[in-house]
Design a protein that fits this description.
Elements lengths: L1 H6 L1 H9 L3 H4 L3 H6 L7 H8 L4 E6 L4 H4 L6 E6 L5 H11 L3 E4 L7 E3 L11 E4 L26 E3 L8 E4 L19 E5 L17 E5 L17 E6 L10 E2 L3 H4 L5 E6 L7 E2 L10 E5 L8 E2 L9 E3 L1
Parallel strand pairs: 1-2, 2-3, 3-5, 4-6, 5-7, 7-8, 8-9, 9-10, 10-12, 11-13, 12-14, 13-15, 14-16
Helix pairs in contact: 2-5
Length: 313
Amino acid sequence: MHLAREIGGPEALSFLSRIPDGHRAGLAAALVSAWDRFPGGEYARDVLSGLDVRELTISVPGQLAQAGVVGRVESLSVIRDVPAEEVVTFVDEHGVHDLYISESALKGDVSLAPLATARGLSTLGVGVPSSVLSVLFDDEPLRVPWNQKADAHFRLPPLPHVAEMSLIAMPADWTREAADRWERLTHLGLFGPAVRGLSAIGGLPALTHLVLESDDLLAMPPNLVHHQVTHLLVYVTRVPSRMPSVVDLTGIPAAFPSLTHLILRVRAVGTAPIDVTGLERMDGLSVRAVGVSQADKRLIGVEAFPKGRIRYE
């Protein structure tokens, strides 16, 4: 299998097309990853036809149409600029649950409104590959970097069936009033420029888990209040060479009064100080500080916490 992929060409394609159906299912991931060695629709038709795959990446023009012959697809990544209508058709026809649309696929003012009809979609990542956020709270590392200076412009209506969503920027048509129509959105990740829209998430009715990662994260917005958020994961990456020099998290009690779990993932060196003063007064709050020790001078206000309330890792 691996030798055929490396060799490529008509003979290798013929060999792969003769793999019995009973064996192809167990080789699905390898067969899909070999597609880039056999450009064109012939490989999809002769090798991938009817095959259920866990992950599929669309990276060249016309590939999504060629992929129409495969069976069910659990996770779809769209790297190329593909019309949203075509993506939705594929999502519906192949039972896609997890969709990632890369920043490079968001050219110009893109409307993702057709996604409103993709009822089977449960997780969505726009510009951020790690759309399945729940695993990040279980110590899964953030796998792929994204563009902190992304300049993505897109429109996205409320998708009442989506439960987890990651954004590299806030949708141009996002409003506080429309937030209550995201009926099942329990996990939200705001990355890079998207953090600037943090004050507009207060109306999300089902939100319980929030991930924040951005050089733009300075403090909690003063007008943000969300009573359902219980889990907050903050990636601290800001460097002190820019002003202000402190990542101010003292506004967390006012913004998220029901918070029970706070995870701070701090880059090992070079990040700005983090002020958690006052968080010790939040009843039932447990804190994990990953990447720092108890003696780290970058943590401000930790001396007021009762013993054992902060776990250093």
